[in-house]
Amino acid sequence: MTPPRFIVLDGMDGAGKSSQVGPLTEWLASRGQHVTTCRDPGSTPVGDAIRAILLDRHDLQLAPTAEMLLYMAARAQLVAEVVAPALDRGGWVVSDRYLLSNVVYQGHAGGLDPAAIRAVGGVATGGLMPGLVLVLDIDLETAARRLDRPLDKLENRGDGFRARLRDGYLREAAAAPDMITMIDASAERDEVATRIRRAVVERYPELA
Fold this sequence. Notes:
- By secondary structure, the chain is of the alpha/beta class.
- The protein is 54% helix and 12% strand.
- Helix 2 packs antiparallel against helix 3, helix 3 runs parallel beside helix 5 and helix 4 (99-108) crosses helix 7 (158-175).
């Protein structure tokens, strides 16, 4: 069965995933593909409003379950307004984060049950899962050094939290090798982009 034309870039903060959305999108377009890009949470008016609450409002302290459910609400809107329509038109979707982020951030690192998060995620997404998740992996020291800007609420949770994040991504990748591919993101940006393209062609050989 052909995997959905839905690719997610994921990984802990500082790995450089957001900077790889553009190169991947341009490469797909160079092969004659129509590509829609998005970020999760965000990319809709509802999602952007929720994103501000989740990441920018340092005065609001959210309970872990409330935090997770807000991400799910933003994702439900993203699927309804952006992801599903783009796929229905026969195009590609490249997303900066998706459900795996919640499983790792609020689950493995945050203390909630990852299985419960996946179950809620199934409802929020209507079961719409990516065909490929590329997790940009990097050591904790390099990730921290790359975050040379004001940190949002999640990025401010300290070294212990970041260590649990990396471990969570590694665990999830080991459990789902058919969907999740780890990408060594320690190299320069162009080399990482090359590694991403190789992984995409491996999953979608029609792009070779």
